[in-house]
Amino acid sequence: MEESITGDFAIVKGWKADHFGNVIYRHTAQNFNPLAATAGKITVVEVEEIVEPGELEPSQIHTPGIYVDRIICGTFEKRIEQRTVRK
Which domain holds residue 47? Predict the structure, then answer.
């Protein structure tokens, strides 16, 4: 049998998390971040918002808190491309 791939650290970016480490991802982050979070020995999740326990719907949680070791609430600069046209 093949051995699984595990890393020492898994650093992923989520959208919301509670204090127990349950994480919700948005858009394309749902593709590989849940798998990467479960593959690391130590998982660090950077989120936009940390909410109180019970505010997240259980059916919406992508990564359960058992896989998360650290949560960081980051400050994000939301850059939006602006379309400019000539006069």
Answer: 23-73
At residue 20, the pLDDT reads 94
Question: With the CA atoms of 43, 49, 54 and 57 taken in that order, what torsion angle do they form, in degrees rounded to the nearest 10?
Answer: -80
- Residue 84 counted as domain residue: no
Which neighbouring-strand residues pair with 42? 9
Q: Residue 1 domain-assigned?
A: no
> Does 13 score more than 90 pLDDT?
yes
pLDDT recorded at residue 76: 73
> Does residue 55 lie within any of the structural domains?
yes
Domain tally for the chain?
1
